[in-house]
Structures are given as structure tokens and as C-alpha cells.
Specification:
- About 35% of the residues lie in helices and about 10% in strands.
- It is an alpha+beta fold and about 180 residues long.
- It has a single domain (about 5-165), classed as Alpha-Beta Plaits (2-Layer Sandwich), CATH 3.30.70.
- The chain has a 4-stranded antiparallel sheet, with helices on both faces.
- Strand 2 and strand 3 (about 60-65) form a beta hairpin.
- The longest helix is centred in the middle third of the chain and has 19 residues, at about 75-90.
- The protein starts with 13 loop residues before the first strand and ends in a 19-residue tail after the last helix.
Length: about 180
């Protein structure tokens, strides 16, 4: 793994991304997106995860997070492991997504630790948020993702995005909306 994608300072926020195997559009279904929402909420309530921004796209998700004192690694590992189990459990009863099950089985067949399905691509690609300018660049990127993807016309129209929080609309997750005082490195 390159140095670019390592969380080295546990005090700073990070832009993180993780994607579904073969970019399958699993999160088009709110049933699966809600698994992510509930898991993020659990990590916020019980593991010290601070959430500044998020967007759960059909094939991947982006977040700006912080886990003071720990860094994001252990929380992201647990989040991906738990959501993978929950998604696998839900897919067993989902006859409409057989193509996803086949793709996830194929991905798991090459890995000893995976017994049935591999849902997530490896890694979470943390990028350290080192300045306010970079924070707002990533925030804009996250919020514009569904617009650029042709899903909605306005960022706040996408339900699974913190753009709704910033627009003071109902949203599935609470976030921290405050200025982060960061020095430019």
C-alpha cells in the first residue's frame, strides 16, 4: 500500500472511500444503504467516530471522518467487516440480485478468510485532511458526486448525502457541521 493511502495522524480528519466489488450498484436499494447508515451511526455512538460529511452512492461511499486518538483504521475495518456480514445475510433472501451474489462469491473464492461472499474492495483509501481548503475541496467532491453521476440535479436532493444536513433538510445521519481549524502543512 502506498504512503498516500495510510492514516498516519490519528488527530486529523480523513477523506475515506470504499467501494463494492466490481462496482456493483448494491446501494440503489435503501435496504442495503440503511445497513451502512445504521453501522456508521453505531460507530459514532460507540466507537468515537466523528462524521463531517458522507455520501452513499450506488456503488461506493465517501466520508470525511475523524477518530481522535485512534485514527480511522480500526473503525473502518470493523465497519466494513460488520456491513459485509449484514449485507451477505440480507442477500441470501434477495432473489433480485443474483448477479451480485455471483460476483461476490467469485471475489471470495480467491481469499481464504472469506467463506462465502466478498462485498467490499480492499482498503478504504484514507487521505489526510491537512488544510481547510482541502477539507472544502473534498466536501464539495462528496456532495457533487450524485450530481455528476446523473442521479439528481442538486446535491441536497440526494437522500444519502450530508448535503442535506448542510441544507438543513432531514438526513439519515447526523454530522458535525463546524469549522475545522487546520494548519496548512
Amino acid at each position: 500500500m502506498s504512503e498516500k493511502y495510510k492514516a498516519i495522524d490519528p488527530e486529523l480528519p480523513y477523506f475515506v472511500t470504499f467501494s463494492i466489488i466490481e462496482w456493483m450498484p448494491l446501494f440503489r436499494s435503501s435496504d442495503y444503504a440503511d445497513i451502512i447508515v445504521n453501522s456508521i451511526r453505531y460507530c459514532m455512538d460507540n466507537k468515537g467516530l466523528e462524521l463531517f460529511a458522507y455520501c452513499i452512492m450506488p456503488t461506493h461511499l465517501h466520508m470525511i471522518i475523524r477518530a481522535v486518538g485512534k485514527g480511522p483504521g480500526p473503525i473502518m475495518r470493523d465497519l466494513k467487516k460488520f456491513t459485509s456480514s449484514e449485507i451477505t445475510r440480507a442477500l441470501k433472501y434477495d432473489t433480485e440480485n443474483l448477479n451480485m451474489i455471483v460476483a461476490f462469491k467469485k471475489a471470495a473464492s480467491d481469499i481464504r478468510r472469506n467463506k462465502y461472499l466478498k462485498v467490499w474492495q480492499d482498503g478504504y483509501h484514507p487521505e489526510m485532511i491537512y488544510s481547510n481548503k482541502f477539507f472544502f475541496q473534498k466536501l464539495n467532491y462528496i456532495h457533487m458526486n450524485p450530481v455528476k453521476g446523473g442521479i439528481v440535479e442538486l446535491p441536497e436532493d440526494y437522500y444519502y448525502s450530508s448535503a442535506r444536513n448542510y441544507a438543513e433538510l432531514s438526513a439519515p445521519l447526523e454530522i458535525i457541521i463546524q469549522s475545522i481549524e487546520l494548519e496548512t502543512l
